[in-house]
Amino acid sequence: MPSRSAIVLLFLAACGVFGFTAHGYLESGDTEITLHAARAWWERGDPGLVRADKRDLLDEGEQTYLADHFIASNIEPALGPDGQPVAPSRWGMVGTNGKAYIYFPIGHQALFAPFVGVGKTVESWFPDPAKRFRAQRGEAYGELFWSRFLLSFVSPVCSAGLFVALAWIARRLGASPTGSLLIAAFATFCTQLWPGTNETMSNVPGTFLQVLAVAATVHYARGGTPRGTLLFCGAASGAAILMRYPQVITLLPFWLWCGATALRRRAPAELLWLALGGMPFAILLFTANFLRFGSILETGYSQNAGFGAFPVLWGLPSILVAWGKGILWFSPLILWVFWRLRHRASWGPATVSALASFLLPLGLFSGVVYWAAGQCWGIRYLSGPLALLTVCVLATSEHRGTMARPPRWLWILALAISLGGVLTCYVSQHKLAESAARQIYDDPPNVDQNVDWDASLSPIHSHWTYLVQSARGALREDPLGPVHAVFGIEGIAPPTLAAEDTGFRHLWWNWLPHWMPELPVFWMVAGWLWITLFLALGAVRLWTRDSTVHKPHSHTRR
Known about the structure:
Blueprint: H1 4-20, H2 29-44, H3 66-75, E1 92-94, E2 100-102, H4 106-125, H5 127-137, H6 145-151, H7 154-172, H8 177-189, H9 193-196, H10 203-221, H11 226-243, H12 247-264, H13 271-293, H14 312-321, H15 327-330, H16 333-340, H17 349-365, H18 383-399, H19 408-423, H20 426-440, H21 447-451, H22 459-472, H23 474-477, H24 482-487, H25 508-515, H26 521-543
Antiparallel strand pairs: 1-2
Helix pairs in contact: 1-7, 1-26, 2-4, 4-5, 4-6, 4-11, 7-8, 7-10, 7-18, 8-18, 10-11, 10-12, 11-12, 11-13, 12-17, 17-18, 19-22
């Protein structure tokens, strides 16, 4: 197995790779809302948001913000003359104390909270960029400049850990040192996971923790010490669920694998360590739910989740083949992975668990009104299961001597599709696609059925059109507007373009100089790339130094 030095060096190299494409800002409205809840948590000790006309809910000396007022006003449902809600609330629920609480996962809010304080400290050192940003974006949006910048690196750092964990799982399942790196690269860069590594949603941190739990499961099943391994598995599982609640169903197959392993060893009591590891996180979630909503099972999603509100027979093919989101287009490598399942050598407990981890959320989210998973690249709640399934199938095949690498044309195609989602900002492209749909369909168009099912609006090809037009400056200079520049459709009022929407400014090293013109961009980029290359060469050398294939050993009870 790789040494600690190899693991650390590979992690640092991966940080350089994924960190290079960090955005420098928060690209989604959901993340913005989470940030303001985190600010309330940091400053008030409570993530509840308060409208400006309800200052009685604040303690003396505290204040409400314009963003707080806007978010809280959307969470509190408007009431009709009879006192009944006339429209469903958005983004959360009103708590038992009268404050408005967002429904985005409590773990992600907690992850954001320290960055509020750190960002304010950095702003005291470098105030000018924050002032320029606030002057251009306005008071509601223009605060917390440095907090946003620092937070944009959280997902890339978690992605680096995710890559290392996938390579470690492949190695533990019997892949060779070189093969484990290739398998991790296929799973990361040739599936929809790669473009998602620079999104600031809870998906990447949650997926990273999920994969850590799977790594612990594999280690336990291959003879790892029960106490530490299962304790870690339970803790990683609990943290993953706090980051993204539905991950409980993607982790369930691996918990069952742990249970089957314990029964095979005739030591079911070992599972108490798994429960003990997850217990603190369960207590945290239940306590947060009770303090906010008066029920340990209420997360805030009950009024807005939409489970079972969409026809499964339409949702399932949408997830699979819709041009704007379908995993068979965005992760074509998965077709070859399923083809490998024809071979008996590809099967094993790891593959069975990973396959179940993929199929369970596929069935659950087919019946959800937002099957498209919002403004993100691909079906984001399947990114982790897709990567795990790829790793488990390929690593198991290689260990049994039958691994065949994916056809070159297929992994190059998958790489090119993902690269389009990295070199451009998905949210910006999606904004233009929605504007185009207003001309093609009813106004407003149905995003889930019109935009994501229209092949002419698919980012698989329009990302590259967007890339070329952005490089040419046509998004801003086309007299018919940016929608015409990308999709060739006329007669549409052009959406407002932000600084990050054109000219590759969605990448932090090109976005930050827009607010800090004094930065030496060339030397900054050159230094980053040289250091990353140096770390990568050293990491590969250390990782592949051990040429022996790991063999599982039997577990001896003490």
